[in-house]
What we know:
A: five-stranded antiparallel beta sheet; 10 helices; 20% helix; B: Rossmann fold; five-stranded mixed beta sheet
Amino acid sequence: MFYVTICLLALTTRVSSFERYSENLDIIHLPGNKVNTVFSFTSVSDNVNRQHFDVLPRSLVSILLNYLVEELHLSLTQGLWRDNLWGYSAHSAPPGGQFLVWFGGPLDTINERWVNVRNSISGITCASLSALSSEDTISPKLSLKPVGLTSTKGDSRYMRYGVSPFEVVCTENLTPWLKLLPCGSSAGLASLLDASKLYDTTYHSLAVNVRRVSCEGCSGPGWEIQLTLSLVFSPPQLSGRKDWSFRTMLGKTLVHSCPVSSSTMVKVRTLEPLDALEITPTEYEIISDREIVYDAQNITSFKILNVYLRFKNKEITRGLEEKPALLAHTYISRVSSSSSGHIVSVFTNSRDQDIKILYLQTIPWYLRAYIHTMKIEQILPESKILQFQGMSLTLAKDRSHPYTLEGILTVPADSTIKFSIQFDPLMLRWNEYPPDAHHGRSIPSGIVTFRDGEQVLRLYTESPLVYLPTPDFSMPFNVLCLVSTVIAIVYGSIFSLTTKDLVCIKETEVKKGLLLQLVTAIRGLLKKERAVKEGEKRETDKCTVEEKTESKADEVCDSESNETVKIK
Amino acid sequence: MALNLPQSVQKINLLYYSLIVVVLGTPLWWYTTDTYRAALPHSQITALTEYNSVLNIPVAVCFNPSDVQRSRVEQIIVSLKPFLLSRGGGGGRVIYDIVLNLASDCGKQPFSVVFTNDVARPSKAESSSQGLKISLEKVERMIPEVAEDIVQCIELPHLQNHILAIDDPSLHSTLQDVRNAMAVATSYNILVSVVNPDPAAINLDYNLVEGTKLYLEPFIAELGKVAEVTYQTQVIRYVKLPHRPVKSGDIYYLSESNLPHVINPIESKLGTSTTNDINLIIYLMEDKYSPLHIKTVGGEMKQLPSFLSPQFGAVLLYDTSNKTSIDHSSTFSVLLPQLKQLLGLKSSSSAGISAKEKYLMESRATLTHILRSTDTLNSLIRLVYSIPNMVIGDHIAEQVSSAVEGINKAQSALMEGKLQEALQQSSLARNAAEKSFSDPSILALLYFPDDQKFAIYIPLFLPVGLPLIVAYLEILKQWKKNKDKTE
């Protein structure tokens, strides 16, 4: 009986600390011979214990618990996901860094916690999120709803969102990101990641997604931590052929699976039917005529896994068969860096039915946007003025927060509509410019949320660069020197006028210094020569004018008398 | 153009110019370019360094009324006093004042001495649950030795070493106890990490939840108010030892000189913390290396393959052969004594924390806080005087004065024997002192080179000042001339 109780106890404790970890690699063929590889590492835990960490990363979870974070999305992206060429992606993200946090707990400490979370997450991902200040932070009311369970029911006051378009992604971000995995880069799918190959890609997006999920038999909402890495390779650029393998693309093959992982799946989805291809090894399961899957957990059956895909037809494939339902682009239209300009977003609906979209645009405070100039018009096939069907607008405050504009809009079937708003760039204070002031500033990408069939999709537009008028940074010193000089000249002359007399003295009375004697001697010589050349010349009456202080004021001489000139 | 004003008017004009420059210009320039400096309690801070803290260590004295009379015990206490005093002074900036008090019950005091005839060997002091038992026979004959017994009983030399090492870091190399201990902090996080070098081969139940509950939690509970202590556990995978164990006969061994290299690969995977971590690392050895020993520098084989890394943590190389789960009674029996050393206590076999040890930890923490915050404030004062560009805001001055106040309060509480209060005040003082010293605002104008100041001021001051000086020189010359003439 005693043993039974102990066994039961052991059983319950094991159940209470339930943690599951799985790995997935999706290889998706994109039009134009591109290959999108998406690594995703998912840990699920029922209720996170403050103290015991087996599979979940301690450094990350400690931060989440410490600052009462309920949901967190971080992405670090290089390049732009090209919806028009590649179709939609579930892992698209705006260029640069994107950071979204849903908080729980008291409302009044959120700003402080947001700063701390930013700094802490910067620390464990080596990203410069700490540079995301409150100036770049928004809490949109309609867009970016939580994808997990939150205690605040999606109240936007509990959310903070920021984008830093200039964030550069590199191996320094990958290394700490890999440390968050239970097997690191030593085993499992993460061992395929070779830093020297990953940055040769057209698109690179590293992400950390944390949300609360419900799980069966849990006491409360559990946690899901998903780390994803989405890459777009171009095999013809790597090897000169359409064919690809793990070795040509990633530079590595899978040797060990992670023993902690409950499943390791490698999925390949192609554009061509499978009989047009030759795929090795052949121990795969067929899901559909264009999709196969390897169970890489039992890797012993392959020894090493190096998926190799050969095309029977060597011709380069065409572009997208079907145009994506909606495309969105943002650009700046402007004449010069100091003139006012327009932020323009264009939405194209290529379906034969209307699409309702939710559009979010952030405009930094240093671009003074004029709300009255906001215009939505249909430009194709015919010109027509449209209106937002619903809208939420937060005006910017200088040095505090940006403009947040959210609008619900219907894009009519087979048409293109254009949103534009006029702005004037502001002159910043000289110490507010970043070190590379002439680089300009990027405005955050617009986010378009819409429903395509069953799924809700999110598109990110480009984040255009805006040149700001920059001053000459040596100006303060120039101004100082100029002002000093002007003061000195004005003061000097008034001082002389009011405290000195202008008097004439006889040359004989002037005490000559060594230099002066030398000068008169040379002059005398010159004069002799001239006298020889020009013959006799009448001597002009000259006067020695000398500034004297009042001490010599009494020694006034007659200016009419014949004197030689000496101007001191 | 010439105004040719009368000489007297010119002189008055000159006077006006001088007045404007001296009365208006100079102060204006001074106040607009001066760095702001709130007044710091300079004299109070220097006074702190001159004043030695006095630690009042109460020792309860009990006696058996049938063995000795109360008046005799009082006499003994008086005669012990000078010896204890000489032993407690001269310990750097702290005076240890051992106060013997008569008490009725000695069981609950941190330190207690019992004078009794009931000692097995009268020449030796004997420790018991009631405190240190000293035979009356010894008291009558050897008072200095009795004083030394008391000093040893309260582990005064150990405490003194810790405090001396604050001023003399070279002691770290000679005193192992001092070297091992973690720096005094207000909170610690004990991080238990199980390191599995090959999870595919070593597959056993880590048992961390139960293990820590059974063995670590009671220990932390006993630490009580000395410091805020939390704990966490984690599992780290795929960390290989940089050196393979060497086979020697039936056993494997790692030599002691290689052990420091074990730490580096593990440390890189520990993960960052915002807390002050004490690491307890259980490294699971592959069973092919069983049994594993550690070969000391002297060539001796240590059966228990564990070691301590000073001010970092303890590492246990755990033998996994024939095991399905980690037996935490054996791991914590090794790790807890090492944890005590890391917390600045003498390593002893008992796993718990006694009242005596608690007192020693608290007094070490209090004295360290007082001395360190005094040093910090002094450094700040020195910095402020050596760097004229440093801005001292009001909030820094406030923090400095609250630190000074905290130190003073802690010192007086120590003298009165209120250790708890002293600890609280001293840690407040330390936090305030550290905050004021590392405030980012004092760095704001730190780099403003003098040559740039000259570059800005010379174009202004030279043309304004030079004519004035020349004019005065002329007046002086004239005055001299006039004087010569009249003579």
